[in-house]
Design brief:
The chain is mainly beta. The chain has one domain. The protein is about 10% helix and about 45% strand. The protein is built from 1 helix and 9 strands, in the order αβββββββββ. The longest helix is centred in the first third of the chain and has 19 residues. The termini are far apart. The relative contact order is 0.24.
């Protein structure tokens, strides 16, 4: 292969790599905070249940969707010290996503219950905060934004 051909190959390879990675975002670091938006979650109510299992506490989050086609998932969970509190509270933050069906999807017209479970040692946290990222399937939201949810504790 001539030097000229090698230079052309290197140029094409570089151009391909630049085009292939255009618009790609770097992965979120474990220390990067998740984006929390203003306002509060306004979707279907979320119920929170506690179940003690020995030294563990199992949290059950239940959401009743108004129709079929919803997806309810735990994206991330973390326990951190509350920076605004002098007592040193440890806060468990649960980051959830609720994906609604697209407007043109055919879905079951019935209430559908979704349940998520999360377990930790009973001494691991003092308070729980739940944040929800609401989106509609196919809407192409650019980046998730989580909003604080008021949960019904049982």
């Amino acid at each position: 292969m001539s030097l000229r051909n090698l230079a052309q190959l290197a140029t094409f390879t570089l151009a391909f790599l630049l085009l292939a990675t255009a618009g790609c975002q770097s992965a979120r670091s474990a220390t990067d905070p998740l984006p929390i938006g203003r306002g509060s979650y306004d979707g279907p109510p979320i119920e929170l249940g506690f179940h003690e299992r020995g030294r563990m506490v199992e949290l059950t989050l239940t959401l009743t969707a108004p129709t079929g086609g919803y997806r309810f998932v735990l994206d991330h969970a973390e326990i951190r010290d509350d920076q605004d509190d002098q007592e040193g509270l440890r806060i468990a933050s649960l980051f959830l996503s609720l994906e609604a069906p697209a407007p043109d999807e055919m879905v079951t017209q019935a209430l559908v219950e979704h349940e998520l479970n999360w377990s930790r040692h009973h001494d691991a946290f003092d308070e729980i905060r739940v944040y929800v990222n609401q989106r509609t399937r196919g809407a192409g939201e650019p980046r998730p934004t989580y909003r604080r949810a008021d949960v019904i504790v049982h």
